[in-house]
């Protein structure tokens, strides 16, 4: 399947954003929110978002994008606030940085993770970043 | 007119003509892109020159006007619409200045986001 693109008409010509570019912005926005963790052990957010169906799904409409996210929240963090924080961060970065109009941002909280497990995940992903 | 001949500008019946190859135009576009803050080549450390530039830069001529298509990466943190607009302006400006060919449009395709910590070379 050809790479999907969001095409915006500008005075000097088209500006097309690949779907993977929008996904990268959304994934990075989620990482900024405290209390959010990857859905499964052993992978960072990026790993999960590498396969769009799993954690992050962006649908391109004519002039805007709709976002669907599946996240896990660390126990102890207020789930609703974290989810709202994710919605806000994703919307802000896609609008402010990518410069696209954002329609819906749907967040599905699929799991809560005990803090000690989250800690393990965090160390693992930090090590992974240093090696990569 | 053979396509490989390049873009021709007629200076006048007695002065002859100037032909500029696609590679030259593609290279100019790549060099212009390299100077725009927030824009990076989608692969490698610099925009390719010469024949290699054709992979990233598509040049078309219609009714005496040039249409450019360029693939780029955007460095994370820079507002995409702002830097792509600067890129369009810069490429149009440079090509018109250096080749005297009018540029009709510069189509930009953002294929990648580069996160500063992943950027080859690091601090720049």
Instruction: Kindly report the name of the CATH homologous superfamily of chain B.
Output: Cation efflux protein, cytoplasmic domain
- Can you identify the CATH class of chain B? Alpha Beta
Biggest interface, which chains? A-B, 20 and 25 residues
The CATH fourth-level homologous superfamily of chain A: Cation efflux protein, cytoplasmic domain
Strand content of chain B: 25-35%
User: Which structural class matches the secondary elements of chain B?
Assistant: alpha+beta
Helices of chain A, by number, come to 5
Q: What integer value in Å does the Rg of chain B equal?
A: 16 Å
Q: Provide the number of structural domains of chain B.
A: 1
Largest sheet of chain B: 4 strands, mixed
Low-confidence stretches of chain B: none
Query: What's the CATH architecture name of chain A?
Result: 2-Layer Sandwich
Q: What amount of the residues of chain A lies in strands?
A: 25-35%
- Look at the structure and give the mean pLDDT of chain B: 86
Number of strands of chain A: 6
Key words describing this protein structure:
heterodimer, A: 132 residues, alpha+beta, Alpha-Beta Plaits, 4-stranded mixed β-sheet, two-stranded antiparallel ribbon, 5 helices, elongated, disordered C terminus, B: 124 residues, two-stranded antiparallel sheet, 3 helices, 30% helix, 34% strand
